[in-house]
Q: What sequence folds into this?
């Protein structure tokens, strides 16, 4: 049985959140949410809402944003992470750690942009891709 469920979102770090949001809204005709500051994660985000998933546009917030280093290496922006849904974040983290994967930070879930618990996995353990896991209700449950 697969640990991960559906693709929740692909996150793209951008140098100017308003300009990036306008491109998706005005050029591509997408629904774009209002910006939300997430000080605990050091980012400001908007979501481009698609029928089958979302694209998260994010920009650094504050001087010690973890995204600042990414933007220094990629001043024009780029794909930052991919988020997959899981039903039990703590069980997923235990299985991943036992398998040799590294959970970033203190290893404890934080509340993400959707108000749900999230963890990030080290990109060196997943072929150069930063992976976010977001806990969602089990199928048939409330979300």
A:
């Amino acid at each position: 049985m697969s640990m991960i469920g559906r693709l929740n979102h692909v996150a793209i770090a951008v140098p100017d959140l308003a300009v990036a949001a306008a491109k998706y809204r005005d050029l591509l005709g997408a629904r774009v949410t209002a910006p939300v500051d997430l000080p605990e994660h050091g980012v400001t985000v908007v979501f481009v809402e698609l029928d089958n998933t979302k694209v998260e546009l994010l920009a650094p917030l504050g001087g010690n944003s973890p995204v600042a280093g990414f933007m220094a290496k990629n001043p024009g922006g780029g794909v930052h992470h991919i988020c997959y849904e899981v039903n039990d974040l703590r069980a997923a983290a235990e299985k991943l750690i036992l398998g040799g994967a590294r959970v970033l930070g203190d290893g404890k879930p934080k509340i993400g942009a959707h108000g749900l618990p999230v963890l990030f996995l080290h990109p060196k353990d997943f072929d150069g891709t930063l992976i976010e896991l977001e806990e969602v209700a089990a199928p048939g449950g409330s979300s």
Notes: The longest helix spans residues 17-27. The radius of gyration is 15 Å. Residues 13 and 58 are 5 Å apart (CA to CA).
